[in-house]
Each structure stands twice: as structure tokens, then as C-alpha cells.
Design brief:
Oligomer: heterodimer
Number of strands of chain A: 0
Strand order of the largest sheet of chain B: 1-2-3-4-5-6-8-7
Order of helices and strands of chain B: HEEHHEEEHEHEEHH
Shape of chain B: globular
Largest interface: A-B, 17 and 18 residues
Radius of gyration of chain B: 16 Å
Helix content of chain B: 25-40%
Order of helices and strands of chain A: HHH
Radius of gyration of chain A: 12 Å
Largest sheet of chain B: 8 strands, mixed
Distance between the termini of chain B: 35 Å
Helix content of chain A: 40-55%
């Protein structure tokens, strides 16, 4: 699965799961700073990513650095899957 | 040995006392008063969902234990508990614990209990913690916060990282959770990392009481 497709699946999940308010849905959208995803909301996203893309997040990688935007998360997923 | 001098003075008296009032974007933090020790509060302590990842999850609290706990925290020279209230209506939705203060080393632990579940997922914990931590860095001489959580509590792991924490240790199979031994993760938030994470607070004045 190419990175753009990973981004598309992430965006679809984000759109149906979270209140995005006035934030434009897109690869570079700010998931953390905008408040769309907080420490409670992250659990649903983690579970989706692990189920959908067949990866397991080690505790060390559960960090805002990997979840700041769909593009950053997709790059992480792509890197881990290789 | 605690490393604290003036050990008899309760920590709460050094950090705002009855006048404690820290304002965040969504919440305000104030002391826990007797009026807060309600059935609703007791319900939080005994709600399995609220305490799903708590290290005291299996204990069922009585009203007397709740009152004794708050009284002990309010009298402790190394610990205190504060109330987290919604800014919009002052509703008490949970607490923050500051524990095991080591004055000589500038360290303290911070933990959360948000009992009103309909306010989960709204960023209230980060809002409360970051403003309490800012005030404590400025006014208590804290250099490092310590946060611990069960490894399966991934929301808490994420929160610790959001606050600028680094994973410093893993206590392997340290506690029993749902009948299984699980790891406990320990995070440290250094003063410098905190202000790199929250540059908006770096030059902001802070006090545990209103100016």
C-alpha cells in the first residue's frame, strides 16, 4: 500500500470518528494542536492503525511526534511496514 | 529522610493554600474543599471505567476513606490534591495529585483523575496539567516532574509525551492488572523540555494564586 493510500484511509477514519470543526481535512491538518485528538482520542486512532495496517505501536513510539498530521502518521506507518 | 526542610508545613500551604487558583484555557484549578466530598466524587473513585487503569482499581472506597484521603493529602508536607473545574461553569470534574515532593532534588509526581466521563476527549487533562506544572516550576522550584502509568494505559503514555515527557524507565511486571502482571512506565518531564513543548508559557508569569 502506497503512502497516499494510507493517508486516504487515515483521513476517512478521522472524518468519521472525530469532530474536526473548522479544520480543513487534509494530509497536513494539525491533529494535536487543533485539539481534534487528545490523549483519550488517541486510543481509537492507535487501535485503528494497528488493525488496519497490521502494525503494533511500541510504547516508545506513542508520541505526538508520530501523530501530528495524517501525513506524518502515514510516513511512520510506511516506515514500520517496510 | 525526605530532603525537605520545614517538614511540618503542608505542601498545599506552600502552593496557594486556600487561595489556590490556576487558570487554564478550559479549566481552573483550585483546592479541594469539604463541599467537594460528595457522592458524585465518591462515585468517581468507585467507577470501574474511570479507574480502569488505576493502580488502586480493585479497591472500593467508602465515604470515610475518601474524606481521610483528602484530609491526609491536605496535611501532607510532600503531597497535595487539587480540584479541576470547568472554566465555563465551575463544575468540579476531577482532581490532580501532586505527590512525593522532594524539595532538595526539585522533583514531584503528578497524576490525574477525571471522574466526569463526558469531559474525556476534550483536552482538559493537558490544560490542567500544563498550567499546574508551569506554576510549580515557577513557584515550588521544581526541576523535574515524574509521571507513571500502567503500560496498557496508552492514553496516559501519550499524555506524558504531550507534556514533554521522556520515557525513562519500565518497571517490568510491576503490578497486577485484571489478573495479569503488567509493566509500569515512568516518564520524566524536565523543566527545559516542558518549556520547549509549551513555548507559549516560557515567558508567561505564573502564580498559584490570582495576581
Amino acid at each position: 500500500m502506497a503512502e497516499p493510500e494510507i493517508v486516504s484511509r487515515l483521513l476517512a477514519f478521522i472524518a468519521e470518528t472525530y469532530r474536526t470543526g473548522t479544520v480543513d481535512l487534509g494530509p497536513e491538518m494539525d491533529l494535536i494542536g487543533s485539539g481534534i485528538i487528545d490523549s483519550t482520542g488517541i486510543v481509537e486512532l492507535l487501535e485503528f492503525v494497528e488493525d488496519e495496517f497490521g502494525i503494533a505501536f511500541p510504547d516508545e513510539d506513542i508520541s505526538p511526534d508520530n501523530f501530528r498530521s495524517p501525513a506524518i502518521l502515514a510516513a511512520y506507518i510506511d516506515r514500520v511496514r517496510q | 529522610m525526605t530532603g525537605n526542610d520545614g517538614a511540618a508545613l503542608p505542601l498545599r500551604n506552600r502552593f496557594g493554600g486556600d487561595d489556590l487558583y490556576i487558570e487554564g484555557e478550559k479549566v481552573v484549578v483550585r483546592p479541594v474543599f469539604d463541599d467537594d466530598l460528595t457522592e458524585r466524587y465518591l462515585g468517581w473513585l468507585n467507577d470501574p471505567e474511570v479507574n480502569r487503569y488505576s493502580m488502586r482499581a480493585s479497591h472500593r472506597y467508602t465515604e470515610t476513606e475518601m474524606r481521610d484521603y483528602v484530609a491526609a493529602m491536605n496535611a501532607s508536607p510532600r503531597d497535595m490534591v487539587v480540584a479541576v473545574c470547568l472554566k465555563e461553569n465551575n463544575l468540579h470534574i476531577g482532581n490532580v495529585g501532586l505527590t512525593n515532593w522532594e524539595q532538595a532534588h526539585g522533583t514531584i509526581e503528578i497524576s490525574n483523575l477525571i471522574g466526569e466521563k463526558n469531559h474525556w476527549g476534550q483536552g482538559v487533562v493537558i490544560d490542567a496539567d500544563r498550567h499546574i506544572m508551569h506554576a510549580a516550576f515557577q513557584c515550588l522550584g521544581i526541576e523535574k516532574f515524574v509521571l507513571r502509568n500502567l503500560a496498557p494505559h496508552r492514553a496516559s503514555t501519550f499524555k506524558s509525551r504531550q507534556l514533554g515527557g521522556e520515557l525513562e524507565g519500565r518497571l517490568r511486571a510491576h503490578v497486577v492488572h485484571n489478573g495479569k502482571r503488567v509493566d509500569v512506565l515512568q516518564f520524566g518531564v524536565m523543566r527545559t523540555a516542558f518549556y520547549e513543548t509549551f513555548p507559549d508559557l516560557a515567558d508567561a508569569p505564573s502564580s498559584p494564586t490570582p495576581a
